[in-house]
Design a protein that fits this description.
The structure holds two protein chains of two kinds. Chain A is built from twelve helices and 14 strands. By secondary structure, chain A is α/β, with parallel strands linked by helices. Chain A has two domains: about 240 residues, Rossmann fold (3-Layer(aba) Sandwich), CATH 3.40.50; about 80 residues, ACT domain (Alpha-Beta Plaits). In chain A, a hairpin with a 2-residue loop joins strand 4 and strand 5. In chain A, helix 3 packs across helix 4 and helix 11 packs antiparallel against helix 12. By secondary structure, chain B is an all-alpha fold. Chain B has a single domain, classed as MetI-like fold, CATH 1.10.3720. Helices cover about 85% and strands about 0% of the residues of chain B. Chain B has ten helices and no strands. The chains are: A alpha/beta, B mainly alpha. At the A-B interface, helix 2, strand 6 and helix 3 of A face helix 7 and helix 8 of B.
Chain lengths: ~350, ~220
Amino acid sequence: MSVILEFQNVSKHYRVGGQDVPALRDVDLKVNTGEVFGIVGRSGAGKSTLIRLVNALERPDGGKVLVDGADVTAMSGTALRSLRQKIGMIFQHFNLLSSRTVTQNIAFPLRIAGQTDNAGIRRRVAALIDRVGLNEHAHKYPAQLSGGQKQRVGIARALATGPRILLCDEATSALDPQTTQSVLRLLNEINRELELTIVLITHEMQVIRTLCDRVAVLDAGAIVETGKVADVFLHPVHPVSRRFVSESGDLDEAHLRAAFDHVAGRLVRLTFRGDAVYEPMLGKVAREYGVDFCIVSGHIDRIGNTPCGQMVMGLTGTRVDDALAQIRREGVTVEALR
Amino acid sequence: MDFVANIPWAEIGEASLDTLLMLGISMSFTLVLGLPLGILLFLTGRRQLLEHMAFYNVLSFAVNILRSVPFIILLILMMPLTEIIAGTSLGVQGSIPPLVAGAAPFFARLVETALREVDRGIIEATQAMGATTRQIVLGALIPEALPGIAAAVTVTAIALVSYTAMSGIIGGGGLGDLAIRYGYHRHQNDVMAITVILLLLLVQTLQMSGDKLVLRFTRR
C-alpha cells in the first residue's frame, strides 16, 4: 500500500483578538492510496483547517504536507494550480455557481484546466451527469435542485478533472439522514470504481461508520486516536473517541450504567466481528457450561462492509470463567465490566 | 395654440438628444473605468485574493475624495482639466470628463459591494479547482455578481441623468441647460414642466430596464 497523503508534524495558529489560538498541534497522519480516510471532531477541533492544508487553501505555520511525496506547503503558482486540478473537493454548502447550469458547473473545472475541446468536454460532462444520476437535471440551475442533487453536482464537478484525491468538507452535514445515506453510497461506489482516495471531515460518527476504512479523532487541534474504523468503534481508547462512539449509538453510557445495578452476576461486554455475528455460539456455550445470561444491551451493525455486534450481559453460574474462555476461543472479544 | 407655439420644440428635441448623448458616452466611460476599479478595490481589500491594505487604502481614499465633492463643485473644479482632456469645457463634449469623474468612483464602490456579496465558498471552490485569479474573476466572481452589477449600472445611470442636468449650469447643454435658461431665467414654467416630464420618463425607463436586467441575471 502506498502513501498518497502525509502530514508531518503540522501545526497552525490563528491570531484572534491579539492572541495566538492553536488550530493544529503536531499533526502526523498518513493516508494510503485508495482508502477512505475520515477525520472526526467537534466544531472548532481544527478539521476544516486540516483538510484545507491538502490543497493549500490554508498554509501551516510548521511541518510539511506531502501529496504523492511532493511538499504542498512549498508550492505556488503553476505548480500549485496543477496540483489542485488533481485534487477534487466537495463542500458542506455545495458552493456551486448559481449563474451556471448543472452542465456548465461540471464543465467549469475542465475549462479552468485549459481544455478547449468542446465536444470532449460535452462527452465528459454527460458521462459524469449520468454517473451521479442527474440526467433529467442537466440544464437546471442549482436553485432548482434539492440539497442531495446539489451535492451530486458537487461530486461530478469534483471528479471532472480525474483527481487522485477527493476531499469532502462536511459533505453531508447539510443533508437529511436519507439523502446523506444515498450520497455516502455514491461516494462509496466512486471510491471502489475509480480507486479514488477520499479524505473526509465530519462531526458525525455515522458517516465514518458507513464510509470510512480508517479514522482519526481530532480534539483541540491534536490527533488523539487513529485506527481502523471497526477498532475505534468497538474499542475506543481516548475519552473523546469514546464520547463520539457512545453518542452515535442508541443507548447512552449513563443509561447503561444505571441498568447494571439491576443485573446479577458477572458483567461483560462481548464484541463480535465478521461472521462470528451469525454463529449460534452463545446458546451452545451456555448449555455446555450451565451458565445463564441476561442481556442488558446489544446491537448488530455494519461498520463499512464488516458485520459487527456488541453485547453487554450479566452471566451467572458456577463455570462462568470457563464459559468466557470458550467464548474467547470462538474469536469474540470479552471485556469484564464488573 | 399660443401655448404650443411658444414652446421651443426644436430646442427641446435637440436638448433631449444631447442629454441622451451625454448619458450614453459618460456611462460607457464610467463602465470601462469603474468596473476594473471596483474589481481592484474588491480584490485588494481585507482577506481577499490580492489583499494589499496599503494599496487598497490609497485607492479607497481617492475614490472617497471624488465621491465627497458635490458634483456642482467638481464641475467647476475640473474645468481646466476638462479643457485639456476634451478640448472644451462647454457642450456635450465638455461635460463628459466631469460626468465620468463623478460617476466612475460611485460605480466602482457599488461594484465592490456587489462582489462582496458573492459567497466566499464559491471563490474557495474555484480556487480549489486550480483557477488563476483572472479565471476566478472572469469565470466566477463577475457572473455570480452580475445581478448586483446590473443594479449598480442602473443606479449609476440614474445618478448620471441628474448630473447631466447639473452640467447645464455651466453650459453643458441638454435638458438641464434648457430648464435653467427657459424655466429659471425666463420664468417659462411650461418649458420647465416639459423638461421635468422628459427627465422623469428617462429615469423611469432606465429603472424599468435595469430591473428587468437584474431579474434576467438572477438564478438564485
